[in-house]
Amino acid sequence: MHMPLKAISALLSYPTAELQQAKAELLEALGQDNLLPAASTKAMATLIDTLEAGDIYELQETYVGLFDRSKTLSLNLFEHVHGESRDRGGAMVNLVENYRAAGFEPASSELPDHLPVLLEFLAMRPIDEAREVLADAAHILEVLQTRLTRRESIYAPVFAALLHISGAEADKAAVAELLAIKDDDPNDLEALDEVWEESEVTFAPDSNAGCPQVRDMLAGMDTPRNAPPETTPTAAE
User: Fold this and answer.
1) At residue 224, does pLDDT exceed 70?
2) Are 211 and 101 in contact (CB under 8 A)?
3) For the chain, domain boundaries
């Protein structure tokens, strides 16, 4: 298991009392496998210190304001690819099938494209495969890092760490296209509620769906939203 990816998955999850008490374990995990430079681990240590010392309710409020109430900072990766298009449901099905084809059954209340869920999965896959999947999403990771840096958020270094692990350089045109979307205002609750009012997205296993290699699960990440697609934690069965 690639412990830095597992630790980053935890850091990007909803803050809990258990997470607050896991400082030593998180720092140890980030230092394993030589996946991250010392500077990256040090930058994330600030987030870990804040989580440990902060008021749990304030930490949770900050998390929700950033990642749950802001579409431009959503941790659901397909939000940045497909938006509200019908393609999103099919992409979800394919991603679940990729998990199952690799011998894992999603066991989370989060959507399968939720970044912490994906990282839990990648932590248990060959590192070359994990890097390739992260590379496919590099432009989304860079956009999230940029937006969080603008807000002076302590979560920004986490995305820089994922980009480092991917070893990829994000597509600048794709980054610019996403950054051109106006940031959500987390303080405008009425506007955010209107944005989030949408039909429930449901999906189920498709008996006709194939099981492509895991490295292809996010291969359409660079496809613009208006173009046709080319095509959590998890536990072993």
Assistant:
1) no
2) yes
3) 3-220
